[in-house]
Write a sequence for this structure.
């Protein structure tokens, strides 16, 4: 017998953010024994930081709004490598998913008729791009993520979901038939290691923005699910696609919602010029995030940046008036005053494009089932393994996510995964058989760290990794630079594997967790680097100076990074729709 | 150089807690207390604290900073340093797990006690439940709570009766649902609170208001609940 204690559940969700808690809620409501493993108390998950809203065609602000228009915008925003089947499902199911969380108590802001308030966001249009700017983002002031996350936690409390709070999932335990049998997890408070066995394991582990030095992401966004999946030999998809949000506060990196520009704010350079009018004559400041971020970097590179170092631009809000700002953007006023020492009521906020979102992730189908490729390159479902939310690549965001689509992704696909697993459990799936060797495999990495006698400290290695990613894989990319970056990552690899844990104590040992997180960051960063160097075109957020054009002949496809070979392959984009003909790729202008 | 005095206790090795002084170079910058802790952790990896969003919305890093409860990530040194000294202790009144990490079980238990979820058994409409802008405005100043526990752990009544007094955070949330026009559980909620301890142990000391990092006012919410309870019992 193995020494490790075992606990069993029908379903285990790793991650207590928006998608994980939505999946858990679905399963707990139907009476299945469901546990959420979460490394922080659920309401501390990064969903809490989402500000602007949930984009969804609920036809509140515009009674004629249609989900098909939202779908068109999302496909175009993805630069045509979002899976259209998944986007169709998300946009069509979206309203139901949004109304459900409203019924659960989410305190949405309201319009005059008492319906959910919707604001304009980037990349939104009416009538398939022909009817001008739409207002489709459902908001709770500028604290929508907070409101959503707390509502979902409350729903789970009501339905008695088991929370393994402040537990950290270390690695996947694979059964002898290569399916997923559960995870090895540490109870952070006691230091105990446990095998959490499950009939269905859902990774809702969120993003990994901390691979970059400058990010809007919380400290906890360390790509734990990506690291675990890659170490288990499973692929990740489109991992080169990282969104740089146009408006991170200069220096601090904290997010300033796109809702600011939706409410009428705009960007200016050092001459006070509203420069987005030059880059995107129609949508201006509400063009796709990739377009706005690149325009800002060009302004800075061409010497029109603001401040004494000319290394940022300004977001102007003061013309909106104090009353509007207090009502619509109260959180932004707080953040700007605290982190930029600028009061938006009177002065502009210094902002700079900042790493924000991982479009890539674990490839899944619309039911959340994780996929790998067989030897012929065909999709193959990984038995017992699911993913949803930012950790997954279902893929609804493709090469560039539209603002407000991430919260929708969380509740639509958290729900879809839950529904699918509920049906599987009803049909009677069982626990996978697991040998002591299988469990030992899952313990290898933890044992190595626990027994480390020499090596470097995690924070030092982490900061080196973040600098490499920031310098070589940022907003603009170039082949020779990226090759240099990969070379540096290769040098870092063994040092990260041999990270030294000096503190071997058991109680609430966060140094141990940070060492484990560092290795997850590294796996994610390495996959990003290889995929970014391999995709020889510019598409969405992936902008190459040496391949400036989109190359539909060769790259209208997903990249698939295979961890064994450390190289990328290709996977077709899904264009099979249930309700209409797919949207064909067009030149993308705003 | 700044002296940063930090509360240390590791149950694996320490017989009792102690204060450890670090000499710290703030590089003349008005950094946040969390930045200081992060830098100290590079020097001494055994130093333990909670943190997540680093922008004051997740509520992880509530600690006692130079005598006042607050969030480390949004408290700048200029507000926290006195006589060139910064003192960081865990939030008071709850058991210490290790260093700055407290056991928040009792705090969460009080939150769960108020049934912090929408009660409305009517069949929901196909779309959203309507709510007027005026009714929605009643939730402002209530729903923004981040469960950081700065308020409840600053409350002498909560220190005295953490098992029976709901505490300012839980009561703020209780009122958030009582004030929601969509919630139909008012009767049940008030009945649950109708005992000498749950609400009435609040003596209006207002430490909660003074420390809330989100600028919320639990005492005011408790006042509203009191009025509702009195009306309900008449």
């Amino acid at each position: 017998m193995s020494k490790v204690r075992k606990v069993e559940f029908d379903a285990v969700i790793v991650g207590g953010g928006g998608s994980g808690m939505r999946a858990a809620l679905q399963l707990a409501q139907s009476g299945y024994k469901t546990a959420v493993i979460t490394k922080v108390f659920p309401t501390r998950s990064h969903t809490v930081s989402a500000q602007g809203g949930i984009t969804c065609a609920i036809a509140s602000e515009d009674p004629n709004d249609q989900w098909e228009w939202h779908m068109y915008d999302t496909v175009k925003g993805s630069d045509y490598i979002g899976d259209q089947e998944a986007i169709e499902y998300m946009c069509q199911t979206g309203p139901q998913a949004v109304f459900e969380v409203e019924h659960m108590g989410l305190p949405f802001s309201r319009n005059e008729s008492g319906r959910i308030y919707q604001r304009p966001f980037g990349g939104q249009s009416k009538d398939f791009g022909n009817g001008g700017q739409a207002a489709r983002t459902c908001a709770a002031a500028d604290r929508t993520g907070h409101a959503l996350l707390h509502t979902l936690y409350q729903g789970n409390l009501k339905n008695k979901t088991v929370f393994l709070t402040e537990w950290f999932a270390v690695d996947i335990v694979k059964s002898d038939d290569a399916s997923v049998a559960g995870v090895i997890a540490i109870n952070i408070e006691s230091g105990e290691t446990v095998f959490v066995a499950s009939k269905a394991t859902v990774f809702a582990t969120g993003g990994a923005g901390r691979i970059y030095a400058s990010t809007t992401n919380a400290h906890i966004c360390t790509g734990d699910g990506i690291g675990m999946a890659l170490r288990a030999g499973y692929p990740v998809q489109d991992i080169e696609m990282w969104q740089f949000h146009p408006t991170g506060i200069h220096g601090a990196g904290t997010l300033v919602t796109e809702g600011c520009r939706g409410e009428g704010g705009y960007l200016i350079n050092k001459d006070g010029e509203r420069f987005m009018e030059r880059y995107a004559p129609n949508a201006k400041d509400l063009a796709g995030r990739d377009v706005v971020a690149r325009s800002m970097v060009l302004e800075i590179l061409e010497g029109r940046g603001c401040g004494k170092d000319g290394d940022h631009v300004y977001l102007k809000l003061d013309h909106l008036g104090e009353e509007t700002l207090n009502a619509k953007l109260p959180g932004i006023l707080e953040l700007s005053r605290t982190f930029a020492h600028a009061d938006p009521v009177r002065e502009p906020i210094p902002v700079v494009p900042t790493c924000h979102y991982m479009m890539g992730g674990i490839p899944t189908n619309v039911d959340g089932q994780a996929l790998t490729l067989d030897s012929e390159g065909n999709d193959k479902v990984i038995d017992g393994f699911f993913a949803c939310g930012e950790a997954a690549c279902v893929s609804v965001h493709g090469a560039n996510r539209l603002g407000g689509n991430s919260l929708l992704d969380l509740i639509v696909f958290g729900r879809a995964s839950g529904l699918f697993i509920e049906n599987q459990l009803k049909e009677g799936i069982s626990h996978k058989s697991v040998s002591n060797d299988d469990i030992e495999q899952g313990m290898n990495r933890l044992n190595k760290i626990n027994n480390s006698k020499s090596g470097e400290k995690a924070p030092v290695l982490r900061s080196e990794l973040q600098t490499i990613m920031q310098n070589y894989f940022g907003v603009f990319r170039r082949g020779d630079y990226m090759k240099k970056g990969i070379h540096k990552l290769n040098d870092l690899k063994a040092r990260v594997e041999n990270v030294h844990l000096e503190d071997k104590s058991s109680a609430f040992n966060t140094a141990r967790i940070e060492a484990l997180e560092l290795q997850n960051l590294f796996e994610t960063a390495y996959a990003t680097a290889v995929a970014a160097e391999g995709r020889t075109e510019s598409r969405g957020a992936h902008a190459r100076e040496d391949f400036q054009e989109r190359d539909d002949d060769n790259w209208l496809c997903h990249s698939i990074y295979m961890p064994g070979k450390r190289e990328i392959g290709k996977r077709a984009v899904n264009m099979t729709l249930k309700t209409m003909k797919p949207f064909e790729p067009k030149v993308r202008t705003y | 150089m700044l002296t940063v005095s930090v509360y240390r206790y590791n149950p694996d090795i320490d017989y009792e807690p102690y204060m450890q002084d670090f000499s710290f170079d703030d590089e003349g910058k008005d950094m946040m207390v969390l930045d200081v802790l992060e830098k100290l952790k590079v020097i001494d990896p055994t130093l333990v604290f909670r943190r997540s969003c680093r922008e004051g919305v997740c509520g992880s890093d509530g600690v006692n900073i130079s005598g006042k409860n607050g969030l480390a990530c949004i408290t700048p040194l200029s507000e926290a340093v006195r006589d060139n000294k910064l003192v960081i202790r865990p939030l008071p009144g709850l058991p210490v797990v290790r260093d700055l990490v407290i056991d928040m079980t009792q705090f969460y238990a009080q939150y769960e006690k108020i049934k912090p979820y929408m009660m409305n058994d009517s069949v929901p409409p196909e779309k959203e439940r309507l709510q007027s802008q005026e009714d929605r405005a009643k939730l402002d100043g209530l729903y923004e709570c981040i469960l950081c526990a700065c308020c409840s752990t600053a409350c002498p009544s909560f220190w005295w009766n953490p098992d029976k007094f709901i505490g300012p955070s839980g009561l703020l949330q209780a009122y958030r649902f009582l004030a929601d026009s969509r919630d139909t559980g008012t009767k049940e909620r008030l009945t649950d609170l109708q005992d000498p301890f749950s609400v009435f142990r609040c003596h209006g000391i207002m430490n909660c208001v003074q420390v809330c990092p989100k600028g919320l006012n639990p005492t005011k919410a408790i006042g509203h609940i009191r009025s509702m309870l009195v009306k309900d019992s008449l």
In short: Chain A has a mean pLDDT of 96. The first helix of chain A runs from residue 18 to 29.
